[in-house]
Amino acid sequence: MASGAVSNALPAAGTNDVSLEEPKKMTREDWRKKKELEEQRKLGNAPAEVDEEGKDINPHIPQYISSVPWYIDPSKRPTLKHQRPQPEKQKQYNSSGDWYKRGVQEHAVATRYRKGACENCGALTHKKKDCMERPRKVGAKYTGMNIAPDEHVQPQLMFDYDGKRDRWNGYNPEEHMKIVEEYSKVDLAKRTLKAQKLQEELASGKLEQVNSPRHPWGEEESNSQTERDHNSEDEDEDKYADDIDMPGQNFDSKRRITVRNLRIREDIAKYLRNLDPNSAYYDPKTRAMRENPYANTGKNPDEVGYAGDNFVRYTGDTISMAQTQLFAWEAYDKGSEVHLQADPTKLELLYKSFKVKKEDFKAQQKESILEKYGGQEHLDAPPAELLLAQTEDYVEYSRHGTVIKGQEKAIACSKYEEDVKINNHTCIWGSYWKEGKWGYKCCHSFVKYSYCTGEAGKEIANTEASLMEEQPEEEEHMTKPKTLMEVGCFPFSVRQILFNILATKFCRAIISLKITRLYY
């Protein structure tokens, strides 16, 4: 019995596991059908196999590549998943923006010694033999005082081929602003020193003598020292003019003329205006971008600096020329010997006369229709701005011209429904407040989805309130103890009477409501 139980339990335990049975041997007929199907798939007469993701499997892939080993997938489903990289075996690399944090200080300091920390300083990130602090006479392990903060543990970064060779990884562009500020301060100091020297020379009188050299015949020298002093701010630039070697530019320090070739390099290139790959196509051979790169951004073509090369086709006389060409084709179809390229002057005169005749014909047709049917007064109506230049806004002004009434701030609408009256109530929920509870003002009910009882509900609520107020006073003046019958009899009888009154009035209200519905 025991052996039978074990043998019966083994298959049950292995039902959830992968079956390790070898594939069955195919018959000759099945093998022939399989080969014929493969040939049909290669010729394109039969549909290709589809894997579990719905992708077609190329029928020209060899069998030793496409077949799945029986110990991986015993179901023998067609797939190429076993040939693709497995995610669990791929190495995970850090992104190019990750880098070690420099100058990080941990400000969180422990107040007591922690187990496993340094016995000397109390930090948890190193041991006593690796401690860089001065050895204490009594360590932090025994004193529990002056525990040093933990050092920042740098992350273990692992980059791929490009990340290892990225020279700018970890560079902070804000550090360059320090250099810019330093050079700006040096430039400001130079200008201040130069202005101070000019003031000193002007005060001593040396500058006037130097700035007024004259020729022997009495005329002042045209290229005087004054012009050179005005250009003294550019002396530093002239010193390094010989070192300038920029492609496409020739620099002359005397004439200060820059000869530019090709386009101005400060302009944005066409292919950099919109980096979306689905935007306008840029042809690198002709350097043309015919479509508008800002078409899908919602910008107006009149507001952008560049709207594509096709805008040239719709500017100037392009549209009028297209209309003239269309007129030439229509006139040629009707028998007129005109051509835009062969005789443009004749076509232009003919087109002008055609437009004049067309306008005269439209004017005569309009006049004849108005004479026959009338309606000239509707065409001479004032513009809509004058017709609708009125408003229903009521504003009151004082004798001094100030607004007294009419410009009150509009009340903001609530996101909840307003003035909703349910269950025959005449007031909204929240119109009554008493003892920290909201209710209906029409019946003094504190239940939101209750039916309205009208004045009867108010009387009942007031009666109950008065009873609740009188009950403590009676208990204070009570001298003789009452029996249980005497205590419970009065409230019970009053409640029964009030309940009967409420029930009868409620039934009358329902009956009257049904009668009105039947009549209307």
TrEMBL record:
Domain Pre-mRNA-splicing factor SLU7 as annotated: residue spans: 160-431
GO MF, one annotated term: pre-mRNA 3'-splice site binding
Residue stretches of biased makeup (Acidic residues): 232-245
Described purpose of this protein according to its UniProt entry: Involved in pre-mRNA splicing.
Record's protein name: Pre-mRNA-splicing factor SLU7
Locations listed in the record: Nucleus
Taxonomic lineage: Eukaryota, Metazoa, Chordata, Craniata, Vertebrata
UniProtKB keywords: mRNA processing, mRNA splicing, Nucleus, Spliceosome
Similarity comment: Belongs to the SLU7 family.
Top-level division of the source organism's lineage: Eukaryota
